[in-house]
Amino acid sequence: MDELTPLSLATLDRLPATVRVPRYSRADLSAGIVHIGLGNFHRAHQAWYLHRLFDMGMCHDWAILGAGVRPGDAAMREKLLAQDCLSTLIELDPSGKSAEVTGAMIGFLPVQPDNAALIAQMADPAIRIVALTVTEGGYFIDPASGGFDSTHPDIVHDAANPDHPRTAFGAMVAALRLRRGRGDGPFTGLCCDNLQGNGAVLRQTVVSLARLSDPELADWIDAQCSFPNAMVDCIVPATGPREITLAHGFGIDDTAPVTHENFRQWVIEDDFCAGRPDWDRAGVTFTDNVHAYEAMKIRILNGGHQVIADPGELLGLTTIAQTMAHDGVRAFLHRVVRDEIAPHVAPVPGVTPLDYLDQIERRFANPEIADTTRRVAFDGSSRHPGFIVPSIRDGLRQGTPVTGLALVSALWARYCAGTREDGSVIDANDPHWTVLQNVARAAAQNPHLWLEQRQYYGDLAGHPRFADAFCDWLRRINADGVEASLAHYLRYVTA
Q: Which intervals hold domain Mannitol dehydrogenase C-terminal (predicted)?
């Protein structure tokens, strides 16, 4: 398409008729939600559900105000404000692409070191939900105990300076202090990250941080605020030149378009202390048994991503779809999930764990999704303990196989050594990359060193059934390579 239309409220009527645009007026919307962490996932997932409700003429007092607490969030703020906080969503269905412009977000708060604007907005009684997507590793969890990490420098700062916090959670505490003092009541904290029991995790972080500076406020938050558990699901690649070019193909000049698969799911506990939008009208599932849904998704989809991303990167496969086109990697995923992960996952209404495995294999193989192995492998220091280690523990406890999961862990260790099999360098891809790389390189000679990182593995180094298998796999990978190790597992290891 030769002529591009800059995305803005003023140009919506100039977009091609094939592009779905909002059917509501921005003037009819008012804010009810502050969302912290305006990445692609939020815009393709949670904001889309609200956008579709607005299209139905419903819940117009629940619009989103975007927010961020990191310096890098300021760049996203500039991009989105320049296009009136509109987003182009491009659905990548193997049968064809489609585009939709969404407008559920009506503003983006200034990104400030002391979070003053964010605190003031969350203290406004019109805000009834504060939602977050800040990554799995962003909740100040002690990996060894699962408890709150009160020693982190940012937490120490926020406890000593509660009116000038650095973190999103410190800002939430400061806003709730103002609301309590004014008699304006609580808000719901809604975690939208991939964490088991994510609402409970968010409660732990906010209440524990408040307790460090104001125990009475902490008790009030714990008693009055709600933190529903939720499961979120949609594969959303990062945005780069390819995605911007895809938007151009629809005639749209959008500096921050979002691509996503033709699937999304949101399952939430119906526990909102200050009300909520009628999200169920847009396809959200409300249930008292979120745990079963999130366990299936975190163990099989998120865990499955870790099964294939590290070997994919080591073999120079740049996208998840390419890993699924590799016979060895795809068979490895199927076997590990079938034999070592799915046995510990309960069914949900209408879906068994093996049904879900079939579904994610199709989703991962979608050739239209340019989801990179590098993105999926990022932050393994949070993702392996969260998505893989629980299945290892279940297998050890119940006497089911863990050999494939030991190979998954060995592949992560080999990945963290920092070179692919062709000798090319893997750039830093974890918040703790330097330490991980040093341990991984030492583990090439003494594999047990890797498992002695108790912050990730706890006491698993002391479980010979897993530890011995891990050490054998890491030695084999270093001696024979990734493909030969996968082939050995698939050919010779029995369930």
A: 289-472
The rounded distance, in Å, linking the Cα atoms of 367 and 365 is 6
Could you check whether 5-288 and 291-492 share the same CATH topology? no
Q: Which fold has domain 5-288?
A: Rossmann fold (3.40.50)
Neighbours of 372 (CB within 10 A): 20
> Which CA distances in Å does 296 have to 309, 346, 352, 363, 388?
19, 7, 9, 15, 12
Residue 111 burial (CB count, 10 A): 21
Residue 469: name the closest of 401, 417, 419 by CA.
Answer: 401
Using an 8 Å Cβ cutoff, are 409 and 395 in contact? no
Closest by alpha carbon to 431, among 165, 135, 13, 169?
135
Domain 291-492, what architecture?
Answer: Orthogonal Bundle (1.10)
Which residues does residue 425 pair with via DSSP β-bridges, in sequence order? 419
Count of CB atoms within 10 A of residue 436's CB?
24
Q: Where are the domains of the chain?
A: 5-288, 291-492
pLDDT per residue, tens digit, the chain (495 aa), is 468 999 999 999 999 999 999 999 999 999 999 999 999 999 999 999 999 999 999 999 999 999 999 888 999 999 999 999 999 999 999 888 999 999 999 999 999 999 999 999 999 999 999 999 998 888 999 877 789 999 999 999 999 999 999 999 999 999 999 999 999 999 999 999 988 899 999 999 999 999 999 999 999 999 999 999 999 999 999 999 999 999 999 999 999 999 999 999 999 999 999 999 999 999 999 999 999 999 999 999 999 999 999 999 999 999 999 999 999 999 999 999 999 999 999 999 999 999 999 999 999 999 999 899 999 999 999 999 999 999 999 999 999 999 999 999 999 999 999 999 999 999 999 999 999 999 999 999 999 999 999 999 999 999 999 999 999 999 999 999 999 999 999 998 876
pTM score: 0.86
Query: What's the gap between Cα 187 and its chain centre?
Result: 23
Provide DSSP, 318-354.
-BHHHHHHSHHHHHHHHHHIIIIIGGG---BTTB-HH
